[in-house]
Amino acid sequence: MPEAREAARHPWRRDSIARLAEWKDKCKGQRAVIIGNGPSLNQTDLSKIRNEFTFGLNRIYLMFPKLGFTTSCLVSVNDLVIEQSLHEMNALAMPKFLSWRSHRFFGPSSVTALLPMFLYTTYESPKFARDARGRLWEGGTVTYVALQLAYYMGFQQVILIGVDHNYATKGEANKTVVSEGDDPNHFSPGYFGKGFRWQLPDLDNWVGSYQMARAAYEKEGREVLDATIGGKLTVFPKVDYNSVFR
Fold first, then answer.
1. Domains defined for the chain, CATH in brackets
2. How confident is the model over 161-183, as pLDDT tens digits?
3. 108 close to 172: Cβ distance less than 8 angstroms
4. Which of 138, 119, 118 is nearest to 127 (CA)?
5. How many Cα atoms occupy the beta-carbon half-sphere of 135 within 13 Å?
6. For residue 222, which of 45, 111, 203, 217 is within the disulfide window of CB 3.0 to 4.6 Å?
7. Banded pLDDT at 106 (limits 50, 70, 90)
8. What is the rounded radius of gyration, in angstroms, for the C-alpha atoms of the chain?
9. How much is the pTM?
10. Diameter of the chain measured on Cα atoms
11. Which residues contact 25 (CB under 8 A, 6 or more apart)?
12. How many helical (H) and strand (E) elements, i.e. helices and strands, does the chain have?
């Protein structure tokens, strides 16, 4: 593909591949938490995961003041989310993993050392990628990308929280809409607040993605567990949050 060849030649992409190589099996055998952005986070005692390795997704940083700590890294691949949140994301002092498409939002004079690690994500060719330096299928949700990253980093066990898999806003899957008021689908009413452009979820597609992730982890003797309080996702084994994080 021409786009893929162009990306491979770009110095920022090459730099990202080199930095991503440092994460290969860096956390082998350890446990990680992927924090979704569902309303259930408001019923979850997040102080219990202060010392865990945590993947924060999209606009999770809106919760940082309440948390009193930041996530270990940030992952975001949706074009609309990145475009409207880039300045806030850039202000975060943590490893950031963004889609290669977002490189267009950075100027030519950007300091390479301050750039995120660009992931070559795609909407095509469904698969579960075991090497984050290559092509990553997005699977319709940033959570799936985070699962691929966690696998690449070597985590033995990954626990999902805040992955409610339940949206109050209904409509055509993947349709771009403009929020007309408070956001009922995430932990903060301002997450996709009034005027924010976002895409309606494709929950059925997400299920297929998650099934691929579960199969990949289990094939290698690893596991993904779902500790979301009241979550509607049924793909991964359910565990009690307060039992796992005492």
1. 2-244 (3.90.1480)
2. 999 999 999 999 999 999 999 99
3. no
4. 138
5. 13
6. 217
7. confident
8. 17
9. 0.94
10. 50
11. 152, 153, 154
12. 7, 10
